[in-house]
Amino acid sequence: MQDSSGDISHLEREASCETTSPERLEQLMRESPKLARRIAQNPVAPGDLLQRLSKHKDRATREAVAANPNTPAAILSKLGAEFPEQLLDNPIFALLTLESPNFVVKMPQDTLERLLCQKRTPTFVFEQATNHSDQSIRYSLADSPQTPVSALDKLARDKESIIRHVVARNPSTPVSLLEQLTRDRDETVRRTVVRNPSTPISLLEQLARDGNGIVRRAVVGNPRTPVATVGTLVGDRNRDVRCAVARHSQIPPSLLEELARDRHWEVRSAVAKNVKTPIALLKELASDNNWEVRETVAKNPQIPSALLQELARDRSRDVRCAIARNPKTPNSLLAKLAKDEAVSVRAAVARNPKTPAPIIEELKRDRDCTLFNQRGPNMRYSIRIDTS
Questions:
Q1: C-alpha torsion sign, points 160, 166, 168, 174
Q2: At what angle do helices 22-29 and 5-16 cross, to 10 degrees?
C-alpha cells in the first residue's frame, strides 16, 4: 500500500501558501476538513471563501476564520459571539473600529455582550458601546465592574434614569462620579448613591441635607452613616424620616425620648418598636392614646412583665391579641386571655406556640366555631359546630 503522507503534507503546504490561487484554494477546501482549516488560517484567503468557511461544521476551522485578518468585517462580527478572544486578537479589529466609529454598536448584540465580558477588551469598545441604542447593553455596561471610568462617566449622563441608577449602585464607580450623581435630578438615583458601599461619609453627610425625604430616609438607613448625622434628622419635616430615626439601633435615649412625644403616632410607634428603647419610655408609650402605639409596645421583645400584665387588660382587643401572641407572656396570663370575651384574642392564645397543652385542649372545646376556623401551629384541625 502506498504511503500518501507526503502528498498530504504537500497539500497542507499548498493550502497555507500565500501564493496559491483562489481557484486552487477552493479545490483544496473540498478535499478534507484538515485542508479547510489550513485555508482558514491563510492570511490571503479570499473573503468569499472565508465567508463559506465561517459556517463550516468544524469548530477549529471557524475559530481560524475569526482570527484571520482577511475575514470580512460582517463575518468577524458574527463569529465574535462564538470566538470573542480570537476577534479581539485579530489585528484587523482595531483598524475596523478606527475606519468605522459605529462598528461596535452595529455588531450583533450577542457578540458585543461577549466582548464586554472579556478581561482584555480594550477601553474604546466600552466607550463606543455607551452609544448603543439598546438600553440593555448600556445597563450591562453600567453594572459591570470591568467598565472603565471613561465609559462610566458617559453613562452617568445617560438620558435614561435607570442607567444612571445602575452607575450609582456600581461599587466600581469612582467617588468623583458618585459626587456628580448626588446632584442628579432623579431622587432614586441620589438614593442609590446613598446605598453604594463606596460612597464616602462626606457624601452621606451631604445627602442628609437633600431636599427629598426618600433620600434623607436612605441616609438614616445606611449603617455607615454616623450616629451624629442621623441625630440631626430627629426634627426632620418628613414623618417617614423621623420614623427611620426612631427605628435606628444606635440612636441615643435622649433623642428617642423626643421622638416618643412626636405628633404623629407612626413615629411614636417606631420608638415603641425599637428594642433599644428604655423601659421607662415603653411604660409611657403603653398609655398612648393611639391603640396601634400600645400594640407595638406589646410586641416589643424587651417588654417587662409588668407591662404585659397591664396591656393584657387594654381596652383594645388588638392590643390584647398582641399580648396573647407574645412568646414572653407567662402561662398564667395566657390562661386569663384564653377566656377573653373577644374571639380574636382567644384565637391568638391558641396560635401562640408557647401556650401549654391544657389551655389548648380547653380552647378546642370552645363553642365559637369562628375560633376553630383559625388555623395555627397548635390548632391541627378545625371543628365545625352548628350554631343555628
A1: negative
A2: 130
